[in-house]
Specification:
The complex is a heterodimer of chains A (201) and B (115).
Chain A (H helix, E strand, L loop, with lengths): L16 H9 L3 H23 L2 H18 L10 H22 L15 H6 L3 H12 L4 H12 L4 H8 L3 H21 L1 H4 L5
Helix pairs in contact in A: 1-2, 2-3, 2-4, 3-4, 4-8, 6-9, 7-9, 8-9
Chain B lengths: L4 H16 L6 H14 L14 H27 L1 H11 L14 H7 L1
The chains are: A mainly alpha (201), B mainly alpha (115).
Chain lengths: 201, 115
Amino acid sequence: MDQTNVTRIDDEDTAPDAALLVAYANGDGAAGRTLLNRLSPKLFGYATRVLGDRAEAEDVVQETMLKLWKIAPDWRQGEAQVSTWAYRVMVNMCTDKLRKRQSQGQVALDAVAEPEADLKSAVDQMTDVARVDALQGALNTLPDRQKQAVVLRHLEGMNNPEIAQIMDIGVEAVESLTARGKRALKAALAGRKEELGFEDG
Amino acid sequence: MDNDPRQDQALAALFSAAKDNAPTPTPDFMERLACDADAALPKYETSAPAPAPSILSSLKGLFAASGLTVAAALGVWIGLVMPETLNTLVDGFAVDDTVSLSAFLPGADLAALSE
């Protein structure tokens, strides 16, 4: 009889992330793949939006997942959510990459103008692809922390306490970052009115 | 301008489009991640099954067990059938000879009462 220490989860699709991670640590490769398929697309979406670069996003997602597999044997259920932990690692890595870029002068942040154009009528006329591009372009002009908070709140759909945990700041600081981020986004979009075909309203 | 509802609606439309068109990882990249996961999978050695007992070792055990049983049975038989012989043997070593070994045998108390 084959006697191994591997314990398998009956229904991996509905199992909590932490249970999958513990099963992986106990040698269940299928549980690891389920967790990977659940987490990595979200992480990739976040990293791509924040970094604005698919290749760099792949790098940080790969590194985050490797770190997750490494700590799996020491994971203690109930102390933190696996997704929160992973996002936290991602946020820190993205911050490092963005800082490195800025120190190398790769990204020049646009001067933020006050919104003047009628965004609504312009956006109404745009295709989905154009809207995504416009938003990404505007996101790229935001300060790092604002950008990360806005993406987590408005694109990843997280609530403020979750974001506070991930970014290691208070809930009030998250509210402030997202509010300033939204203002800056509107201003950045208005600043690109000619490029986006906005009309003065 | 910050609180202009039309601006907020425009931004909400952009957010909505971005959510509906989230960047997705390529299958190649997902496969690479899966390979990483497999490579990092903690390995546990399969515990070796206990060796099957050999016939010889089984017989040894059988002999040992049967030897003990025979010795015990013989002791009981000698005690029951030849208590005087035991008394003689014990008398040779005992310092205090006031107690006979046969007094501890079954039925000794009845024999004492009938005396």
